[in-house]
Fold DinB-like domain-containing protein.
Amino acid sequence: MHADQRKKLINELTALIKGGNAHVTLSEALSGIPADMRTTIPDNLPYSIWQLLEHIRIAQKDIVDFSISKDYKTLVWPDDYWPQPTDSVTDEQWADSIEEIERDQQRFFALLSDEGKDLFSPLAWGTGQNIVREAMLIADHNSYHIAEIIVARRLLGIWK
């Protein structure tokens, strides 16, 4: 792949992961949620906004860890990917979750930008996955659950 094409692809994948083109960003989806509603499970939905946020964090970290290291340890589905309901979450827990999502995205962006990595070659420790596929998986997975956060906010009456 020519260097200009690679740079354009990396820019597109980065923008896709950051979101905001066809939907709100995670930051926008989380903005203004009252602390006492973070753990409320809306009627007819299985998860609270906190559980969705934590699921995004856990799943994205899992994808990034898998993409970076052959020493990756497989998580157990679904138990390791979904937090249990809770009655409260502290401001510190909330902020830490968001910060880890951002840090893991930066780790993945560094992987994308590593010129020594072939973006399309299968990862030696995987079953055919490559860095481009994992980038699209992060973007797809996060956008799906960001939409669920918006639905939860609508049902709780705390969306625009």
Remarks:
- The CA atoms of residues 39 and 48 lie 5 Å apart.
